[in-house]
Amino acid sequence: MVLAQKLGRLLILASVRRCLICTQSFNVQGLALSLQPSERLTICFAKQKQKGGASPAKGFASSSSTSTQSQKPAVRSLSSGQSGSGTKVLRKAALLFDSIRKEHGVSASSDVYVRSPSNNKTTFWFVGKIAYQNGATAEQAAVAQKRLIFEYSKLELRPQNLGGPFSHDLELWLAPGDSEMDTVQNKVNLEPVIGSASALPDNFDLGNIGFNPEIYVTADERLEGGLRVQRDEHGKPTKSKFDVNLSA
């Protein structure tokens, strides 16, 4: 990440830590409710992300230039067997994401969550965002990059929750683009990604999709956990929706 992005993420973490030790109660549907520290963390993190502390359209590989060259086969993966290939694949996917978001806006993107039922049946981890253009759908963009998303999530982002013995049953779920705060407030359902790469059209062009991975900056963030939400087997909130005012 460039220096400005690192500073932005550090500001987010500082705000999150302030929320964790804050003694105020949140106003939830008109009732005073004291939330657990982990719930405060999730709400604060989502609010800061949507305020622009970490720009959703500028992430892992922000750059002033990009390439939308077609790639084959129509699947992205970290496992290409070349030294440093993981970073290269992620960088290319992130550059494509930035390019597509810049041209088409938030409507051409979706938020991505991963669940491991063997680790926790109701916890869905936010792992990044996908973008798509020229007729490609959200599900196609997710399917074509599923291997990349899973490998990044279990090896780099949340190995303690999504890797090792918990990696055999990973699931991919989607929410509308930039909906983190609404998702945390239980106003948004998550939708499962059901398809497989074998169902993609023969001429599917990876140049029409991108992936912007979530990034944890510090060891504290990695240990305490980033943005995650609670949902049932169908992606529906396990609690009632609520409104939060964190303007103080």
How would you describe this protein?
- This protein is of the alpha+beta class and 248 residues long.
- Helix content is 35%, strand content 16%.
- The chain contains 8 helices and 8 strands; from the N terminus they run H-E-E-H-H-E-E-H-H-H-E-H-E-E-H-E.
- It has helices spanning 3-21, 37-51, 85-104, 138-144, 146-157, 159-162, 180-184, 219-224, and strands at residues 26-28, 31-33, 109-115, 123-132, 171-176, 191-192, 209-213, 228-230.
- Strands 3, 4, 5, 6, 7 and 8 form a 6-stranded antiparallel β-sheet that branches. Strands 1-2 form a two-stranded antiparallel ribbon.
- Helix 1 runs antiparallel to helix 2.
- The longest helix has 20 residues, at 85-104.
- The model is unreliable at 1-34, 52-73 and 79-85 (pLDDT under 50).
Concise synopsis of the structure shown:
The protein is 35% helix and 16% strand. It contains eight helices and eight strands. The chain has helices spanning 3-21, 37-51, 85-104, 138-144, 146-157, 159-162, 180-184, 219-224, and strands spanning 26-28, 31-33, 109-115, 123-132, 171-176, 191-192, 209-213, 228-230.
Sequence-ordered SSE layout with sheet pairings:
Elements: H1 3-21, E1 26-28, E2 31-33, H2 37-51, H3 85-104, E3 109-115, E4 123-132, H4 138-144, H5 146-157, H6 159-162, E5 171-176, H7 180-184, E6 191-192, E7 209-213, H8 219-224, E8 228-230
Antiparallel strand pairs: 1-2, 3-4, 3-5, 4-7, 4-8, 5-6
Helix pairs in contact: 1-2
